[in-house]
Amino acid sequence: MSFDKIPFSVPNDNSKVYKDECMYCFNTPFSEGGLFLCLVTHYGLCPKHLNLHVKKTEFLGYLHFSRVQISTVTAKASEGDLNASSECSVLEKPKEFALKYKDVWELVIYPDLFPYSLADHSVPTDLASCCQKLIEFRDAYNIIEIENQTNMWEGNPLKPTRITNLHQIENPPVVSTIQRQCQWEGCDKTDNLWMNLTDGSIYCGRRFWDGSGGRGHAIEHYGKTGYPLAVKVGTITANGADVYSYDEDEMVCHE
Question: Which residue intervals define the domain UBP-type in the entry (predicted)?
Answer without folding.
Answer: 161-255
